[in-house]
Design a protein that fits this description.
- The chain is of the alpha+beta class.
- Among the domains are: 96-237, Pdz3 Domain; 242-320 and 363-412 and 458-485, 2-enoyl-CoA Hydratase, Chain A, domain 1.
- Helix content is 28%, strand content 19%.
- The protein is built from 13 helices and 22 strands.
- The chain has helices at 26-43, 53-65, 73-87, 98-106, 147-157, 165-173, 185-191, 221-226, 272-285, 303-311, 389-399, 465-469, 474-485; strands at residues 93-95, 113-118, 121-127, 138-142, 145-146, 199-205, 210-216, 242-247, 252-257, 290-294, 318-319, 321-326, 348-350, 356-358, 366-367, 377-382, 404-407, 418-419, 424-426, 433-435, 439-443, 459-460.
- The strands form 6 sheets. The chain has a 6-stranded mixed beta sheet with strand order 8-9-10-16-17-22, sandwiched between helices. The chain has a 5-stranded antiparallel beta sheet with strand order 13-14-12-21-18. Strands 5-4-6-7 form a 4-stranded antiparallel beta sheet.
- A hairpin with a 4-residue loop joins strand 8 and strand 9 (252-257).
- Helix 2 (53-65) runs antiparallel to helix 3 (73-87) and helix 10 (303-311) packs parallel to helix 11.
């Protein structure tokens, strides 16, 4: 099942720097706040997965009390972001109305830099023509706000599963396609923190770290992207969803899966499902001994395709999902969506406390290995961009001790996530959109000691900014070394 749906939105103008337009009345915002929190309470079946009911109610009360006077659309968006961040769900997030989003992309003046985070420090990774010579520089402060403080606040605002930092940092630095770049560092500086052009940038250049300062007027996100500078994850089109190549006369194979979606074909033009079958047949034909599966930056897709990868790697029957839960079959907030939200009664059975268990999912129940399964050694490369469906497959492979994992902590929760049946709820007065997942996934795993974390790899890999700028691939290099040396 592919997770997502469309929505209709209201139109509001935004004056990004003065907050003069789209002033919202206090009562209108209180109504929108109540619609938002009621929809979360009614629809989000994982609302208390990482936060207690008591703490959530206290936060909602405190945030609502801060609506004391009229405020701009963007200020109200920032206030609601506090509520969303508290849910700690990477599939739950807010969007401005459509025309406001267009103005963000085409009119908002943003810091003309892509960045990378190295050891809780922020570095310029790529820049446009107005900020040449800054790549590799450590950003010390922006408009007199220390970079460490900026980063902590952006991480706290950015949606993500549990307490996983790697996913939030990935969205800040590389996740432009996530929610149309809302949390990408240059855009989030304003949308989340209110920092805008002109930008007084304090920085240090390697190797001597001499402090310097420059004033930048900024550029629009569309202009920044049009420079041709491409940070990983940026852009609407890209390479195939999957590709396979062989090393050392076929003894080692590297299978790169960039997405578990069928919307982008694999390297041979096939959809990913049949491509995986043909790829594993090639492993057998070449007598491959070691398979390296690269799942870095794979944000997920169809549940069934993640299960298919697992079924091609395990040699015995296995459980994939322990349980899938949903709060109800119909929802009163449906009239704030573009369509009626209704879950077929034939798809569920009664659950606990009035909830329901989704039972018609193809990944639920006992699963079986596929005939083309691979029996050799397996290394899996992961990072904070490994999310959703990808992390479900990672959890099952890890629980079944089927692979050695290399990289950084995965971006999705080890024990599951909330996603699927994801309506977009349009708040009636502001037009702000809530992306609301309805189904909570519980993976068929146990014994992992970190309830609010992702999969922590067996071999953790870190980079310096110099290694990132040089385009080094330390995860793949390490995997190849392990494969050739025969160690795990």
């Amino acid at each position: 099942m592919l997770r997502g749906c469309g929505a209709c939105v209201a139109a509001f103008a935004v004056d990004f720097y003065k907050g003069a337009d789209a002033q919202l009345a206090r009562r209108a915002m209180e109504q929108d706040f109540d619609v938002l929190t009621s929809a979360l309470l009614e629809g989000h079946s994982g609302l208390y997965r990482y936060s207690t009911r008591c703490n959530t109610n206290e936060l909602w009360h405190d945030v609502r009390a801060r609506i004391k006077s009229d405020m701009s659309l963007v200020d109200f968006y920032r206030l609601l972001s506090v509520v969303i961040a508290h849910v700690k769900c990477g599939h739950t997030y807010l969007l401005l109305p459509e025309d406001a989003r267009e103005r963000v992309v085409n009119e908002l003046r943003v810091l003309p830099l892509f960045v990378r985070i190295v050891g809780s420090r922020v570095f310029a990774f790529q820049s446009d023509e107005g900020a040449t010579g800054l790549s590799g520089a450590e950003i010390v402060a922006v408009n007199q706000v220390p970079a460490g403080q900026l980063l902590r606040r952006l991480v706290s605002f950015t949606p993500g599963d549990g307490s996983i930092v790697t996913s939030r940092e990935w969205r800040i630095t590389r996740g432009y396609t996530f929610a149309k770049g809302y949390h990408l560092f240059p855009i989030a500086l304003y949308l989340e923190l209110g920092i805008h052009s002109p930008f007084t940038l304090e920085y240090r250049l390697p190797p001597h770290g001499v402090a310097s300062r420059v004033v930048l007027q900024g550029t629009t996100p569309s202009e920044l992207l049009a420079t041709g500078l491409e940070a990983p994850g940026v852009g609407s089109s890209g390479p195939p969803s999957a590709c396979l190549h062989f090393i050392d006369d076929g003894r080692i194979a590297v299978l790169r899966i960039r997405s578990f979606s069928d919307s982008t074909p694999a390297e041979d033009g096939q959809e990913l499902g049949p491509y995986l079958i043909s790829a594993f047949r090639q492993l057998h034909a070449r007598n491959t001994q070691t398979l390296i599966v690269d799942l870095r930056d794979n944000g997920g897709g169809r549940d069934e395709l993640g299960k298919r990868l697992v079924a091609l790697l395990l040699d015995r029957p296995f459980e994939y999902y322990e349980e899938l839960t949903v709060n109800a079959l119909t929802f009163t907030f449906s009239h704030y969506c573009d369509r009626q939200i209704e879950i077929p009664r034939s798809a569920v059975e009664p659950g606990r406390y009035g909830s329901y268990r989704l039972t018609d999912h193809p990944n639920w129940g006992l699963q079986h290995p596929l005939p083309e399964r691979f029996g050799g050694r397996v290394y899996v490369l992961i990072n904070g961009g490994s999310f959703s469906t990808t992390c479900e497959a990672l959890s099952i492979l890890h629980y079944n001790k089927r692979a050695t994992f290399i990289g950084e902590e995965s971006g999705g929760g080890y024990y599951g996530n909330s996603s699927h049946f994801m309506p977009r709820v349009t708040l009636p007065n502001s037009g702000i959109i809530l992306h609301l997942p309805l189904v909570t996934y519980h993976m068929a795993v146990s014994g992992y000691p970190f309830n609010d974390r992702g999969l922590i790899p067996d071999h953790q890999v870190t980079y310096s900014i110099q290694e990132l700028l040089a385009g080094e691939d330390k995860e793949l290099h390490l995997a190849l070394g392990l494969a050739r040396g025969g160690h795990t």
